[in-house]
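A further point concerns the way the authors explain their paired sequence and structure data. The central task, working out the structure tokens from the amino acid sequence alone, is never made concrete. I therefore recommend that a typical entry be quoted early in the introduction. An entry of this sort, consisting of the sequence and the corresponding backbone structure tokens, reads as follows:
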Amino acid sequence: MSDFTKIIADGKTSVGIEFGSTRIKAVLIDENAVPLASGSFDWENSYKNGIWTYSLDEVKNGLQTAFANLRADVEKKHGVKLTTAGALGISGMMHGYLAFDKDGNQLAEFRTWRNTITAQAAEKLSALFDFNVPQRWSIAHLYQAMLNGEEHVSSVDAIYTLAAYVHYLLTGRRVIGIGEASGMFPIDSTVNNYDEAMLDKFSALAKDYPWDIRKILPEILVAGDRAGELTPEGALLLDPTGEFRPGVPLCPPEGDAGTGMVATNAVAARTGNVSAGTSIFLMVVLEKALSKLHTEIDMVTTPSGKPVAMVHCNNCTGEIDAWAEIFTSMCNVLGADVSVYNVLDKMFELALKSDKDCGGLVGYNYLSGEVITGLDSGKPMFFRGPDSSFTLENFCRAQLYSAAATLSIGKEILDDENVKIDRISGHGGYFKAPVAGQAVMAAALNAPVSVMKTAGEGGPWGQAILAGYMINKADGETLEDYLDKKIFGSQEIFEVAPDEADKAGFAAFIENYKKGLAAEKAAVNS
């Protein structure tokens, strides 16, 4: 018996499949979360009738293709066919709106998180609940459809996120992980369920409809709960060859925010993670709920139900990438064959050699708007004064500061709420170059920033870990303890603590940044 065959026979492997915005990826891991094989399928959303969407045919085809590619990778690497696993988990892009009638017919185009068509509903619900309801949330989409008088609303029997719907196809169970549920409707973390008072308030809004909001939302489960088994029909959907057998247990379906927390071991109170790429967000696990409504802060939960404050910003590395392309073009014009990746590495390296305050330089990376600074749209801008120190090194640091600036402003709200953070895990392109991104982010957020070797494994790996937790955890073992002891205990972690000089430099930059926002707003408005 090969080592791989024994691992499968022991029944401790798990599969995570995540439906991301541009890729569906499947990952197989062992009980120690070591990746054994993977498969993927690239896809893109479509813009139809004013809505960003994916068709259900694309969903099913992508699921089958990613899983077939996983099975092919298993056969290539290990010489055997994958016909079962110890556990399976589905995750996906959070939020959005998938609505079905009692016969399982889709009632409207799948409305993804990307749509910004629910401003009226989000504003009204936030006021009604005294709780921030972002436009992305499922309940905002449902209420906006009600406000629009859309005919399909009267026939609604069930609403799902994408992960919850795929889970339903595989198991026949209308359930959802609590972290994913927190992107559908506000959660009461004290009981790990939807907030009863807010359900009552929404029921009053929907009194003229034949459905009950409590019955059309999926049932909430938490990490470690058993969320059904792969049915014969689900097994054939997953693997039309019929070789992969039914009966595999599934963990609760989760969202990409939750799987990101798991993948960076940021699920315990006073920990957080920063995802920094095209956009940037900070998620901090709270010791207690915030004291009041903040429209800039999304309240969600970990997969085990702990309250999480999320600061989400639309802009991060886009402007850095744009300048890197300009510098690369100049090198090429001068006859130097240099890749943009080398230029990016050099920009981050040079930032470490600059004045801590960027020599008075200030940049705004707004390729799109930012709620936190009150901008509906954006225009990238760069400022220097006659007395500024306009060097390449200072320019590069200003770009790195700019990418972290809005997140830092959002975190000020958490500071005012006396939220404590012991450790932040960073992942994404901003942290790929050694030290620089971590040092800047640590100064911007005034907290140590760690990067793990496995941070690049991403959401499907995190969901596979959640599936593994369900079948491999000891009695009474919390998700936090399971991750600390069994998954990340031997991980190599590189931590950068806030440097006092960097903190002072960033403080000087952010003071100038805030003063210059009036000019940025004027540029946008004109």
User: Anything to note?
Assistant: The first strand starts at residue 14 and ends at 19. The mean pLDDT is 94. The longest helix spans residues 500-525.
